[in-house]
Amino acid sequence: MIFAIDENTDRAEAALVNVSRRRFVQGAGVLVLGWQLPAAFAAAPQAGKADAFTPNAFLSIDAQGRVTVYAKHVEMGQGAYTGLATLVAEELDADWSQVRVEGAPADTARYKNLAMGIQGTGGSTAMANSFQQMREAGAAARAMLVGAAAQAWKVDPATITVRAGVVRHAASGRQAGFGELAAAAARQPVPGKVKLKSPKEFGLIGKSSLRRADSADKVHGRAMFTQDVKLPGMLVAMAAHAPRFGATVASYDASAALAVPGVVAAVAFEGSPHRSAGVAVLARNTWAARTGRDALKVKWDESRAYTEGSADILARYREAASRPGTPAAARGNVEAAFANAATVIEADYEFPYLAHASMEPLNCVVQLGEGQCEIWNGEQFQTMDQKAVAEYLGIAAERVRINQLYAGGSFGRRASPQADYVLEAVAIARAARKAGIEAPVKMVWTREDDMRGGYYRPLYLHRARLALDPKGRLQAWHVRVVGQSLIKGTVFEQGMIKNGIDATSVEGLSDLSYQVPNLSVELHTPDDVPVPVQWYRSVGHTHTAFTAETLIDEAAHAARRDPVALRRELLKGHPRHLAALDQAVRAAGWDRPLAAGRDGARRGRGVAVHESFNTVVAQVVEITVNRDGELKVDRVVCAVACGLAINPDVVKAQMEGGIGFALSMALHGAITLEKGAVVQSNFHDYPLLRINEMPRVEVHIVPSQDAPTGVGEPGVPPLSPALANAIFAATGERVRTLPIKTPLRKAV
């Protein structure tokens, strides 16, 4: 799929047309490149087709020399647009000031995530899966531009150079911009193989001088989020949702809602096993829709509603933890090690439900037609949403067009395997259509809808034991994890649950990096808690890293060992862990005494190192606890081993953002249920980190020429255990429940 763009046509109105992988659009001086994937990255060929590879369209060059990169990954603040454009521009030798980025449409065959096998953004895979692919696309376009110039100037292509968007032949003094050569380059053959630059030749990759590709649009108000979409005749929809999971609509009275100026209709829409039914008010603007929705009188049937609270769930989890679970990892003889232990450490860890609480609450624009559907969305999971909508409407997937817009954050919420909020928007539009309303529909959730609408990071309980021998050496590690599965009941169940184990529940523990001779990790996955759950930024590592890194700290103190020294000893054979750990503690001055507090305040310093998404992050946290037990996080020193940093500033920003996100979770994050109803509704009772709570953050990138690994999520897991370890260093108080309960132990 490519964009056929006339130079006089606004890009937002560019038509989508299908082309073969070796054909290029010619017209108005535009080169649009459809790049053949190498066999190693190609999808399986379709039966009966001679062409064994699936093409992708990643860039276009117009007559003015402007380079447009089509991003298959959503830009939700993580810097994906900048990284993808950098990869293309590096090999293309483009002028960065002429590079822009647009979201690619939903088209799994051409835009799938090579790491995930579907079109989508998640798992911190955007740069890792695109590193080779996008560079090859840029290199191919460069070769075609050079070929066009060589043909026109009748010179050897090897004598031509390209720099900052200009093609030059030094011997003859000829030169041309990309735009001048675009039409001729479109007639060049697609190179079968391209030569990529070596790292020493990089001019853009690894540099800190590039402005972000999305910053200008956002600063100047040009960025298109779902809330910005305005279509002719469009109506805004707001839905009334059941206060308890599992409740359904018994009846409703819309008379008061219909009396609100601007309200057009009220419609009941159907639900599904993963999506609640409800009643939606459609209006000509958002305020009228909200006022009308709030005026609805809905009687809910709660005969099948869930009525337990968080305390009830935890009580059942504690009971489950007293029994053996399904083995997730095992080596050695754990019970024998405990029987012969000189010291045993035992601890229960509790982690609450967490809301994603991204800046932009959920929303989606839908336009239904005869046998077709078009969607505008900050789209994170194109393949899943397209398939789910097609099945719901009973149409072919290619009849569902999804336009990718910016997203104001997500933290996993927009990557819904159930396509819940997208299907809700489609269900409302369908109900409206049945009522004779054929207008486009923009579904909007308020913050309260978003907070209480389900799909949280699950509540977990860990029961842990460590065994140390008489010399203080760690001999055994045993953890039982109890919590809902993120995968069970989704389309990923068949491929991601093996032997009854959802790997996302135990990752970070089942693959523990520390060399412990006897290890056992077990899992209980309750199937009778219907609270909707979904992955959260850093997924299972949000809780497993806390347990792993606070346990190892306890082991160090029990053995009277320095926590860093013990980690170094147990991480032999893990050079990336050691590199990150060493860089973090060196930058933090771990070997120097921490400055004393004033007026009786206590100071503490803690460390944690954890691998997630193939990236290792080490963090050192410094805190102050005043005489009244009030906690202040003063400083966080972070070292990240993420392979080659494509955009160092973006890597640092993701580490800083991840630290702020994790600190918010550690200090404040908790969704609680009472009699099945979510208690929290907005930021007054689900507070996020305030600016005065943000510590000074220093980020150091471990030098590497290896292929890049993830950075969007790995900054999150080490923060809370490093903070908990710092609290122990300052107060002697162990933190085993999140969020951290303050004030802490007062000074005596």
Q: Indicate the overall shape.
A: globular
Given as residue ranges, the uncertain stretches (5+ residues, pLDDT < 50) are 1-29, 34-56
Roughly how much helix do the residues carry, as a percent range?
Answer: 25-40%
Task: Count all strands and give the number.
Answer: 31
The percent range for strand residues is 15-25%
Give the termini separation: 70 Å
Counting copies of identical and different chains, the oligomeric state is single chain
Radius of gyration: 28 Å
User: How do the strands of the widest beta sheet line up side by side?
Assistant: 12-13-10-20-17-18-19
Number of helices: 19
**Secondary-structure class:** alpha+beta
Biggest sheet overview? 7 strands, mixed
Helices, strands, pairings?
Layout: E1 2-4, E2 15-17, E3 31-36, E4 55-61, E5 67-71, H1 80-92, E6 99-103, H2 108-111, H3 126-153, E7 160-163, E8 166-169, E9 174-177, H4 178-185, H5 215-219, E10 235-240, E11 248-253, H6 255-258, E12 263-269, E13 278-283, H7 286-295, E14 297-301, H8 310-321, E15 326-331, H9 334-339, E16 343-351, E17 363-369, E18 372-377, H10 382-393, E19 400-404, H11 420-434, E20 441-444, H12 447-452, E21 460-468, E22 474-483, H13 493-496, E23 497-498, E24 501-502, H14 503-506, E25 518-524, H15 541-558, H16 563-570, H17 575-588, E26 602-612, E27 615-625, E28 631-641, H18 648-667, E29 673-674, E30 677-678, E31 696-701, H19 719-731
Parallel strand pairs: 5-6, 10-20, 18-19, 22-25, 28-31
Antiparallel strand pairs: 1-2, 3-4, 4-5, 7-8, 8-9, 10-13, 11-14, 12-13, 15-25, 16-21, 17-18, 17-20, 21-22, 23-24, 26-27, 27-28, 29-30
Helix pairs in contact: 1-3, 3-4, 15-19
